[in-house]
Structure prediction request, 350 residues.
Amino acid sequence: MLTRILKTDKHNPSRRVLEEAASVLKSGGLVAFPTETVYGLGADAFNEEAVLKIFKAKKRPPDNPVIVHISNVDMLKEVSTSVPKRVERLIEDLWPGPLTIVVPRSQKVPAVVSAGLETVAVRMPAHNVALGLIKHFGSPIAAPSANLSGRPSPTNARDVYEDLNGVIDMIIDAGETFIGVESTVIHVTESKSVILRPGPIPIETLRKYLSDIEVHPSILTGNFQGTPASPGMKYRHYAPKAEMVVVEGVYDRVSEKIVETALEYLKSGLKVGCIVSEETARKLPSSVMIEVLAPRNRLDLVAKRLFSALRNMDRRNPDIIIAEGFPEEGIGMAIQNRLRKAAGYRILKA
Ligand code: AMP
Ligand code: MG
Prediction:
C-alpha cells in the first residue's frame, strides 16, 4: 500500500487536507494524525472492519482497546449510554484536552473498539488538526497511538512513517505534537474514581474535581493481580531494543549513580547510552552516547522529548541504556510510568 503524506499547519490546517483525510476515513481507511499528546492512528469508530485494520497495522493485541476521539459533547452521548454526573464539570473545564474518560459503551460502538469491554474510552483532543479532522469526518474517530505495538509513541510524522509506512493510507504531517506523552485515562463511576494511566492532567488537578480519585496500584510498580483494569497496563510499552534501567532517588545520588554505572559498563566493553537531564549530561564522559531531555526543573520539556529520545537512542544501537528518574509530581508521574515501562520495571535505587 502507498502511504500518502500530506503536510499542513498545526494551528491552521488546510481544508483540502482535512477533506482528503476525511474521505479516506469514510471509505474505511486509516489516517495517522497529530493530537496535542502524540500522533494517533485513526479509523471510523463505527466501522468494525476499519477498526480491525488499526489492530492489524499496529500488530496490537486484540484485547487492548482503543480510545474514541470526539469533537463535541453530543458525540459523547452517541458513544456512551450514561455519563456520570460527577464528570460533567471536569469535561466542561478540561475538554478539549489530554484527558480520556472511560464510560459505559453504547451499542453503536462496535465491541472491537473496546476489545469486548462494556466500557469505552473517550476524549476530545486539543489540536486543530485532530479536531478539524473529526469535524470534517462528522463522526467519532477511533485512534490509539500511531506506533507499532510496544514501541515508543510517535511525536512527529517521521516516527509514524518509520513504524507504519506501507500499512496505512495516509499520514497528516503537522510537525511535532505539543505535549509528548499520552492522555491521562480515568474511570469514574458514582462510587469510585481511578487513574488507569497517568498523563498530562496530573492527579493534583483531578483531585479538585474528584476528591476520591486514586492511582491504580499497578501504575508505578507494574504489579497487578487478576484482570487488569485497563488492558494497556499489562503490556510492555515504549520499549527500546536494548536493555534499559531507570536510576531513581534523591537527585545528587542519582547523577552520581548514573555516572558510576555508566563507567562500569564502559569498562566491561559495552556501548552505553544515557537518557538524562542537562545537568547529568554535563557530568558524563564523552564515550557515552547521550540523549539530553531538558533541565531537571522542566518536566514539561522532559515529557515532550521523552519518546523521541527513546527512539533516537534506539537508532544509535547501544548495548545498555541508563535513564534518569524524575520526581513524581505533576506530569512527572506520567514520565516515571513511561520510563519504568520502557525499562520493564528494572529500577536502580540510588
Ligand atoms: P493508546 O491509544 O495506544 O494510547 O492506548 C489506549 C489506552 O487506553 C490503553 O492503555 C488502553 O488499555 C486504555 N483503554 C482504552 N479503552 C479502555 C477501556 N474501555 N477501559 C479501560 N482502559 C481503556
Ligand atoms: Mg499506545
